[in-house]
Design brief:
single chain, mainly alpha, 61% helix, 0% strand, globular
């Protein structure tokens, strides 16, 4: 799965539409509330790590770094 689809899936699994997620991000982190801006970032794969952390936070998630287990 590509990053764009993964992020969109996470938004939906959290029970939000793209617009609802962006409204929350605009309120909590001063993001633009434009769906096209986020869609373009996802399409270009130019979402910054800090933005990913803020997005996860708005969805009630944490980004966790976990060491892979060796096969």
């Amino acid at each position: 799965m590509n990053i764009r689809n993964e992020i969109k899936s996470q938004i939906i699994r959290a029970g939000f539409t793209m617009q609802e997620a962006l409204d929350r991000l605009a309120e909590e982190h001063d993001w633009s509330d434009s769906v096209s801006n986020l869609s373009n970032k996802l399409q270009r794969e130019s979402l910054r790590y800090t933005e990913a952390v803020q997005l996860a936070d708005a969805l009630g998630h944490d980004i966790v770094w976990q060491r892979r287990t060796k096969p």
